[in-house]
Every structure is written in structure tokens, then in C-alpha cells.
Task: inverse folding
């Protein structure tokens, strides 16, 4: 049993394999957070220090007892308005003039299985056992062929009902527990129990309120072309808040954070993750209060948000997934990688190798026709590439300068010079799949759709809307808009054998005014836009269950767990420079697995940074740390480079089980270590690993660097070899100048002694090491 009720102490305990989460039903019905961390037994209520606090407020019910100080106690779902002045998770108003509320415990129950959320992504465990919650959305996860693995974990849902009868609100806190994975999810349902409308002004998904502790906050800010750069800083007194107001989760901040004990490292210490399954405006608030207690919460951004509920109506927040690790950040990342790979990503591509693709964008941009695309496919097919993706420019009157055509999803056959189906047939004839780019939420003013429905684009009446990449945003909060775009795109999908979609979103939202929304509910539009996007994606997944969808938002501007529920992979960044990608992949890896990160080999000089000196091997190894593909005309490579591509295709298939199913270890921090970057994948049974090291700095007479492996069996003996190192390309490999380096080591030697890094001959050179148990016992 993962959820236990201790009647004597009025405490509810959630137990996972290695963690305990305890909630207290406190005096006067306040729901207190007692403990979250390494597994403990017993009632943790003793941690709460009830004392008189000057300038604190006490509940009316407490009379003359001043020890229940409302701004000194840790709450499960703090609300504003009744005496807790720290950042609230919930706030509301009524049209009778009440601002704020006072939520108290009503009841709780435990139900088997993991809840689902209508219209929103949610962690799933065993689909057939999902708890039906109102209009439960369908949980499609059709296994494909024999390679699909269904992970059967034990799961339960805890529902706690809180209410404020005066404000007319009932709040149900949902906790989903995946015991074996040390994951606890949270979501909230708000119901109007009043006789008139209430307005939610803030409804976060979850809050963690610690009684004590010194924490660092790890988060992943960035910008377009340099997303998810890991930052770590102590939580200081006061509120630290970040999030997005752009309508998408954004390039600037990612809805995933880690709260780490200030002494925690990659391999040691307590850390807590919070991953929001939401792709729109979000907020994360961390607060260290006057008594040095930390509160952190996450959910839909409250700025630009107001949600009116009519009597009897309910609002569902998105879900946040917590995970706990007592042994550092690497373990926490492994938990999230498993969660995303097996309990968030759905569909047939969840467990199988994704096709190695070549994308037309950096190969041709808008300068293509059918013949040119077929030639790109032919060149790629010869080297083993498995799919051609036709990027932007194939539809409507889309012109070479990225303006026009958005909203008109019909094939521009004049440009292609042939019907799409004829071109796809030819590509299929090469043994390749075919995929296509779409940007469904956008509209160009120079399009048939805009001329027919100008009110479908967000714009405040009487004011010209802000441009972004010469385009406007369609009001996906309106069903008729989603219907129209879906039907147009479905017609294209039905016209040819399309097996992959890249779904882009190339600007942020502004000028929010919906002709489909009443004045009273204007503050719901941004959220309803996200629901519209999810509806579109769910319909695509349902109608085309075997099509692989890759998310994209000018690169990683909507790289979040919400999107991953519908799109198993997301283009990580428009910056394809392999050296920049080291930092991008490093940051992304804290929460997301390699199988989620879209990454391609592109040409040099790189189109985004202009960097030239990155050899094809390094570009290959970095792209292989993601979903792997190419974005260049492979026919333009030298014979040597083409040989290298063939080798990469073979290596990717050979090592896929390590890269996408093994455990990922960050061996260096590329933000700090300027000499080299290193990372490794280790199989779960510790029998095999693949380590990548990239030289970052050309140095004269360098010191000898050492690199320590992680995750191996200390007692096993391992063989090490350098993939692709044969006599023909020895000059391209870094070398150890002496013969001291052998081929067989114990796991303990590799992890605690480390390996000397060989001398690199070139900047950005790659040293790749394959490590496999040697089948002999350690001495
Ligand atoms: C965005 C994407 C690119 C490419 C272009 C096409 O910028 O991130 O990969 O698809 O749009 O316009």
C-alpha cells in the first residue's frame, strides 16, 4: 500500500520505494505539509513548530491560542486571503465582493490506479486501470510489434477535498503515486459550489512547503538558439519567480526545476524535481520566508489568467510531477527519463528506434522543388538514412521569405512540380519514409484563410496586432478554428503516405482577444488556446496513430512534458552547432531523456554560429545524443565524410539501446569545464556503456586530464574499445602517447581511478569509448 491513513495522528502518508510524503490534517482543518524526503517511518507532525509569532495572524477558531501562526506553518495548498502572506497556490474572488478564501479539510479517499485529466496531458501508469475522472481523455498507447514494452507499475490516487463554503469553492487535491519510480504527481480540481459565478485568479498545480532546509534552485533558462542552460543558485530570502507569458512554455524558461539540498551533487544528496505537464504560460515561485523556510510551487501563470466558473462548473489544473532522489542529481534525472519515456510519451514510437531522418530546412530552405527533394533523398538513402522530412515552404502561397501561406494547408504542386503523392511514392521507392512540416496555430495575413476569417487571428479590435516573423496567431481557443485547420491538414495527410510530422510554432502570443469568448472569461483565453493545441494533437494522434510527431517552436521554445505526451520528440534548438549543443543537451538532460531531444548533423560552417572546425565525427556523436538525423544535402559531403555518415548510421543502430534505453551520466559540466565535455550512457544491467568526450580547447603542452566513469559495476571487469578506430582513420583519433593504457579495467578502476584522456590533435575532436563487461572476474 502506497497511501496510508494514520487516524490517531490524522496524518496521510504517501510511500514510494525510497521516499515518504506526509500530510497532516491539522487543527481547525488546515491541511499541513509535514514531510517529503528519504523514506521514514512514524508520524512526522513533530517537525512542526507551533509557537507564538509576533505579527502573525491566527485562525478565528483558535481563540486566545496564538501558536497556530498562519504565516509560519507549511501548507499543502496555501491560499491567499486568510492570514498566510507567502506566495499562495490558490486565489479567487466572488461577484459578492469576497477576495481570497480559507480552505479547510473536508474528506479524503484513496482510489486504485492513476487519475487522468480531461483535455490535459497526464502521467499514465496502466491505461486500463486509469481512474475515470469526468470526461476522461482516451489513453492511447498502442504497442507496435514485438518490441513495445508496457511497464506495469503499482499506482494509486489520493484525493483530498478542501472547501470554503463562504467563498463557495471546493478544491480537490489529486496525488498520483508511482511507487516503484519514487514519483508523486499532483493536480487540482476547483469547483464552484456557490449560487453565482466565482472567478479563479490563481490555481497552481502543486506546492512544496518545507519546514526547514537550505536549498539551491536549479533551473534551465535560455534564449532562442541557446535553450535550457543549467543554472544553480541558493534560494535566498524573498520570492524568486520565473515562467512564461508568451503563450508557450518558452525558450527563456523551462517548466522543470530542481530543488537541491545546498550540498547535493550529481552523485550525492537530497534533491526534488518538479516537472509541469503544460505547454503554455506557467510560473514557478520559490520563496524563503522570514523563518528560513522554503516554499516552491508551480502551475499556470496567474498573470493574464482569470477563469470564471458558473455554479457547478469545475476547472482542472495541469499536472506537476514530483520526484525525489536521495543520491544526487544523476539519479533524479534517471527517474525523470523513465517517467517521460514510459509514462508520458505515448504511441508506437515510445519503445522503438525512431527513423534516422534528413530534413530539408538547412539543406535547401525554401529553394526546392520535387526533383531537388528526391535528389536529397537519393543521396541520403545511399548512406542508410531512413526518412526525408519536407520542412517549411510546401503549401499555399508560401514564399521564400517566410511570409505568406500560413493557414492555407494545401500542397503547392506548382512549386513541387509534381503531386505530393507522386513525390512521396518516389521517396518510398528508395526505401525511405516521408515526413512533413506544419505550423497549425499560425496564419499569414497573405492567405486565403485570413481573408475569409480575419477574426480568427488574435487581435484587439481597433488596434493593429504585433507581428512575429510576419505572422499572426490563430485563436485555437475556438473549436471551429481547430476544426478547420485539422480538416485541412488531415486532407494533406490522407493524400500521401506521410509517416512523420514536424509541428512548429514560430512566434509568441500577444493581443489576446477572442471573438469566441465572453467578456467575463477573457482571462481564460490563453489557457483555452493550450487546450485547443492539445485537442488538435490528440485528434492527430487518434486519426494517425502510426505517425511520429516531432514538436518544435523555433527550436526548443515549447520543450515540455505536456508536449511530450503528444509528440514523443521535440526539436531541441534551432542552433545545430555541435559545440553549442553540448550545453543545450546538458541542461535538457536534467529532466528529459535523449529520446526526446531532436538533434541533427548539419554542415560547416554552421549556419547559426558560423563555426567551422567541428569534424563530422563530433557532429555525429552530438546528434546521436538525441533522436539523430541530418539536415544538409548529404550528396555535397566528401567521400570520407560520406563514409563517416554510413558509420554513424550503423553506430546509432548499434548503440541505440544504450543511448535511448540506458542511463545517462553527465561526466562534466560544459558550463564550467572549458577543457573537454564528457557524457556516457550505461545499460541498466551495467554490462555496457558508451562514453563521449569532446575536446573544447586547443592547448599547447596541456596537463593530463582524467575522466571518471559512473554507473558501472565496481566488481566487474570491462573491455574498452574505440568505435570505428581502425588503421585507415588512426590519424583522426586522439591518442595516448604511451602504451600504458590497456584494454581491460575493473569497474572500480574506471569509476574511482578514472581514465587518462588522450591527447587531442584538434579542437573539437571526439574520443568515443565503448565499454563492455569482459566476462572475467575482477582480481
Ligand atoms: C523554425 C524551426 C526550423 C524550421 C523553420 C521553418 O524556425 O525551428 O527548424 O522548421 O521554422 O520556417
Result:
Amino acid at each position: 500500500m502506497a497511501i496510508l491513513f494514520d487516524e490517531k495522528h490524522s496524518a496521510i502518508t504517501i510511500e514510494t520505494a525510497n521516499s515518504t510524503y506526509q500530510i497532516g490534517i491539522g487543527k481547525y482543518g488546515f491541511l499541513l505539509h509535514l514531510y517529503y524526503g528519504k523514506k521514514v517511518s512514524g508520524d512526522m507532525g513533530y517537525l512542526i513548530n507551533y509557537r507564538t509569532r509576533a505579527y502573525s495572524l491566527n485562525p478565528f477558531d483558535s481563540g486566545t491560542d496564538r501558536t497556530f501562526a498562519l504565516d509560519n506553518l507549511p501548507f499543502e495548498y496555501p491560499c491567499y486571503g486568510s492570514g498566510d502572506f507567502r506566495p499562495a497556490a490558490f486565489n479567487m474572488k466572488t461577484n459578492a465582493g469576497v477576495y481570497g478564501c480559507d480552505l479547510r479539510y473536508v474528506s479524503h479517499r484513496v482510489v486504485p490506479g492513476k487519475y487522468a485529466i480531461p483535455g490535459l496531458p497526464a502521467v499514465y501508469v496502466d491505461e486500463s486501470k486509469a481512474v475515470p475522472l469526468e470526461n476522461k481523455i482516451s489513453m492511447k498507447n498502442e504497442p507496435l510489434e514485438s518490441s513495445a514494452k508496457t511497464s506495469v507499475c503499482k499506482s494509486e490516487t489520493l484525493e483530498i477535498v478542501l472547501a470554503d463554503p463562504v467563498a463557495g469553492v471546493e478544491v480537490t487535491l489529486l496525488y498520483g503515486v508511482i511507487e516503484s519510480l519514487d514519483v508523486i504527481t499532483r493536480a487540482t480540481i476547483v469547483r464552484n459550489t456557490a449560487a453565482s459565478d466565482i472567478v479563479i485568479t490563481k490555481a497552481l498545480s502543486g506546492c512544496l512547503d518545507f519546514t526547514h532546509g537550505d536549498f539551491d534552485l536549479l533551473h534551465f533558462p535560455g534564449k532562442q538558439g541557446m535553450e535550457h542552460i543549467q543554472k544553480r543558485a541558493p534560494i535566498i530570502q524573498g520570492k524568486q519567480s520565473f515562467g512564461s507569458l508568451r503563450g508557450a512554455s518558452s525558450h527563456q524558461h523551462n517548466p522543470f526545476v530542481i530543488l537541491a539540498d545546498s550540498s547535493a551533487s550529481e552523485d550525492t544528496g537530497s534533491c526534488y524535481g518538479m516537472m509541469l505537464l503544460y505547454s503554455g504560460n506557467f510560473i514557478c515561485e520559490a520563496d524563503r520566508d522570514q523563518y528560513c523556510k522554503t516554499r516552491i510551487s508551480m502551475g499556470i501563470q496567474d498573470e493574464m489568467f482569470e477563469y470564471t466558473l458558473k455554479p457547478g462548473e469545475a476547472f482542472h489544473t495541469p499536472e506537476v510531477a514530483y520526484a525525489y532522489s536521495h543520491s544526487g542529481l544523476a539519479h533524479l534525472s534517471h527517474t525523470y527519463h523513465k517517467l517521460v519515456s514510459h509514462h508520458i510519451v505515448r504511441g508506437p514510437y515510445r519503445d522503438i528506434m525512431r527513423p534516422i531522418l534528413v530534413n530539408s530546412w538547412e539543406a535547401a530552405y525554401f529553394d526546392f522543388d520535387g526533383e531537388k527533394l528526391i535528389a536529397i533523398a537519393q543521396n541520403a538513402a545511399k548512406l542508410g538514412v531512413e526518412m526525408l522530412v519536407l520542412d517549411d515552404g510546401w503549401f499555399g502561397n508560401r514564399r521564400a521569405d517566410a511570409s505568406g501561406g500560413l493557414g492555407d494547408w494545401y500542397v503547392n504542386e506548382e512549386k513541387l512540380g509534381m503531386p505530393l503523392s507522386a513525390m512521396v511514392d518516389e521517396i518510398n521507392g528508395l526505401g525511405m519514409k516521408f515526413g512533413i512540416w506544419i505550423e497549425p496555430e499560425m496564419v499569414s495575413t497573405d492567405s486565403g484563410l485570413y481573408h475569409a476569417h480575419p477574426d480568427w487571428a488574435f487581435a484587439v479590435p481597433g488596434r493593429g496586432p504585433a507581428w512575429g516573423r510576419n505572422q499572426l496567431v490563430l485563436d485555437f481557443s475556438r473549436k471551429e478554428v481547430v476544426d478547420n485547420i485539422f480538416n485541412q491538414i488531415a486532407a494533406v495527410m490522407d493524400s500521401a503516405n506521410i509517416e512523420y510530422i514536424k509541428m512548429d510554432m514560430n512566434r509568441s502570443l500577444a493581443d489576446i482577444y477572442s471573438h469566441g469568448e465572453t467578456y467575463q472569461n477573457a482571462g481564460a483565453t490563453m489557457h483555452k488556446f493550450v487546450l485547443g493545441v492539445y485537442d488538435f494533437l490528440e485528434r492527430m494522434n487518434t486519426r494517425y496513430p502510426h505517425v511520429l510527431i516531432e514538436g518544435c517552436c523555433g527550436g526548443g521554445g515549447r520543450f515540455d512534458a505536456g508536449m511530450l505526451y503528444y509528440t514523443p520528440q521535440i526539436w531541441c534548438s534551432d542552433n545545430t552547432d555541435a559545440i553549442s549543443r553540448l550545453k543545450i543537451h546538458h541542461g535538457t538532460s536534467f529532466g528529459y531523456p535523449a529520446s526526446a531531444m531532436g538533434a541533427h548533423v548539419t554542415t560547416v560552417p554552421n549556419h547559426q554560429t558560423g563555426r567551422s572546425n567541428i569534424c563530422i565525427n563530433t557532429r555525429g556523436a552530438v546528434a546521436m545524443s538525441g533522436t539523430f538525423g541530418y539536415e544538409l544535402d548529404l550528396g555535397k559531403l566528401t567521400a570520407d565524410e560520406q563514409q563517416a555518415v554510413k558509420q554513424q548510421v550503423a553506430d546509432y543502430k548499434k548503440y541505440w539501446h544504450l543511448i535511448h534505453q540506458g542511463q545517462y551520466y553527465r561526466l562534466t559540466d560544459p558550463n564550467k569545464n572549458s577543457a573537454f565535455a564528457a557524457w556516457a550512457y550505461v545499460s541498466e544491467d551495467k554490462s555496457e556503456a558508451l562514453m563521449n568526450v569532446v575536446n573544447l580547447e586547443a592547448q599547447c603542452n596541456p596537463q593530463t586530464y582524467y575522466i571518471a566513469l559512473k554507473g558501472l559495476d565496481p566488481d566487474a571487469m570491462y573491455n574498452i574499445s574505440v568505435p570505428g578506430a581502425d588503421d585507415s582513420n588512426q590519424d583522426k583519433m586522439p591518442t595516448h602517447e604511451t602504451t600504458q593504457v590497456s584494454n581491460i579495467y575493473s569497474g572500480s578502476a574506471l569509476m574511482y581511478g578514472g581514465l587518462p584522456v588522450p591527447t587531442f590533435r584538434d579542437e573539437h575532436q571526439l574520443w568515443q569509448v565503448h565499454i563492455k563487461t569482459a566476462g572475467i572476474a575482477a582480481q
Q: What stands out?
A: The pocket of alpha-D-galactopyranose is lined by residues 361, 391-392, 402, 437, 504, 506, 552, 554-555, 571, 574 (CB under 6 Å). The domain at 676-777 is CATH 2.60.40.1180 (Immunoglobulin-like). The mean pLDDT is 94.
